[in-house]
Amino acid sequence: MNKLLVLCLVTLVCSVSALLNADGKELVFLQFVFRNGISAPRELYPNDPNHPDRWEEGLGELTIQGRKQLYALGKELRSRYNNFITASPREVTMQVATQQKNMRSGLSMLASLYAPDDFWEFVPGLPWQPVPVFYIPEDEDKVLGSFQNCPLVLERMKKLVGQFGNETVLEMYEQQMKFWSLNSGWPINDWNDVVKLHRILSVEALFYIIYWTTLSKKSKESFQTQE
């Protein structure tokens, strides 16, 4: 169950001492917590008509669209706090989770949030400067790591599955689960299986990748035979 709610988060902490805007307001501490951008599915289902090469960034990796998302977020934050923060990389600390998509998400956001000014520009015309990020090994990370070692989270997840993934609910969707099993090539037997398949299909839908949405004649005949 713990796999259902594993969030990939990036934390940015801007700790700025005595930075004043034009109105004399002081920014003492600023913290952002956000997810990674749109990423490719971590895996494909057995009957997926799309080849893994369709995802040029690699399965499970941050897509170009995801990088644009985080770059746009950095620009928005820069616009919002422009009167408080500077271009100095010394005033920002970023922590990311251990996966590459999290690292790339953080770097994409910093590229616009901390684009260099004239002082920090080290290559003429290059609107980028290196800003360090750090991570903690997942088994030691109590902030961005997996929730598998948190008893409270596991208890809440068990309650959630019991509420929405119990036998009564599963019986209501028995025919749909048979349909998903037949077309995906995966046995869809419980809530975890449904979520696993949905994650793939939802990402493919964002990129207008064709996948099965209706039964083919052959699949329909096979499905009716199973009934």
UniProtKB/TrEMBL annotation:
For molecular function, the Gene Ontology terms on record are: acid phosphatase activity
Enzyme Commission no: 3.1.3.2
Q: Which domain of life is it from?
A: Eukaryota
Keywords noted in UniProt: Disulfide bond, Glycoprotein, Hydrolase, Signal
Q: Which Pfam families match?
A: His_Phos_2 (PF00328)
Catalyzed reaction equations: a phosphate monoester + H2O = an alcohol + phosphate
Region forming the signal peptide: 1-18
Q: Which family does it belong to?
A: Belongs to the histidine acid phosphatase family.
Q: What is this protein called?
A: acid phosphatase
Q: Which organism is it from?
A: Larinioides sclopetarius
